[in-house]
Amino acid sequence: MFDEGHFLPLLLINILGFAGILVWHIQGRRRPTGRLIVQILFFATMSLVLGLGGISPYRLDQAEFQGTGVLIAKSARILWWTHLAWTLIGFVHIYISLNHRPREAHLLQDLIVAVVYLGVALSIVGFVFGAPIGPLVATSGVVAVIIGLALQNTLADVFSGIALSLGRAYVVGDWIRLSDGTEGRVAETNWRSTNLLTSAHNVVVVPNSVLAKQGVTNLSRPDETHWIAFVVRIAATHAPSLVEEVMLDILQGCASIVKVPPPAIALKAIDATAIEVELQFCVVSPASRLPAKNEIIDLVYRGCKTNGLSLARPPESLLWGPAVAGSEPAAIVTPFSSSTV
């Protein structure tokens, strides 16, 4: 007959286990701390009942194999192992939340959750149902090798995503640039890929394995302020000091750039026809580069016209002979370029 000394503790564990599941669902996902407290309380109570009743969660006693008692004994241990898994997973969620990295670490979090559930499932199979785990693990290993070979590219994306998350090269919301020129804000990271929202409001899906092999420039670190180097060629008809003063006044009057750190002017080169000037300034974010560029071009044109400066001809135009008498010098602005500091 079923051991009466074990019947009441096992029945109480079943009641506590199902009650814990009910309360766990009532708490909802929006209250992770409350869920964790519930999980700890119910798991601790169930463990206390097991200990006071002298019941082992790792094996069934011979007296429990008789009659319907085996169902109560097995269900109690299954519930105990399930609450153990939920408690461990709750601690993982809380740890990641306290470190303020819920988005960037969700790949690692999913991996830990999968390991916990796999370990608990094997424990239930081995300890509760008494099935041999060794052959099962060996068979699973062979199957895993076959699946791994078939899904080699997918697994490369998965482990590359985990490596990128651990390295914290970027987080969701950062603006990054890849070595192939692709640039955008990180909108989402998942097991397979990273989604970038470009300045043209297109979503570029980059596989994690491809991303891990490329150089990544994070334009949001240490902050999103972004330096721009903008080159203008001025006709060599005025003193370089006057050119520098006019260009600096233009930068200080631009509303699209930040004033701290202050903008600067660098005289790069001079020849018989032109003074090459580099305008260096900072914008609040990479997305502000285009408006700042447009305003600077307009202000350079207006400033040169107001102060009697002429924009120089492109160097390649000199190969075609001297300019026509009376014509205004042509202007050139080098292609827009940027660099982070």
From TrEMBL:
A single MF term (Gene Ontology): mechanosensitive monoatomic ion channel activity
Q: Where in the cell is it found?
A: Cell membrane
Q: Which UniProt keywords apply?
A: Cell membrane, Membrane, Transmembrane, Transmembrane helix
Question: Which InterPro entries does the protein's record reference?
Answer: cNMP-bd_ion_channel (IPR016846), LSM_dom_sf (IPR010920), MscS_beta-dom_sf (IPR023408), MscS_channel_2nd (IPR006685), MscS_channel_C_sf (IPR011066)
Q: How is this protein annotated for GO cellular component?
A: plasma membrane
The UniProt record lists the keyword Iron-sulfur: no
Q: Where is the Mechanosensitive ion channel MscS domain?
A: 153-221
Q: What is its main location?
A: membrane
Q: Give the residue spans that cross the bilayer.
A: 6-24, 36-58, 78-98, 110-130, 136-156
Q: How does it sit in the membrane?
A: Multi-pass membrane protein
Know the name of this protein? Mechanosensitive ion channel MscS domain-containing protein
Organism of origin is: Sinorhizobium meliloti CCNWSX0020
What taxonomic classification does the UniProt entry list for its organism?
Answer: Bacteria, Pseudomonadati, Pseudomonadota, Alphaproteobacteria, Hyphomicrobiales
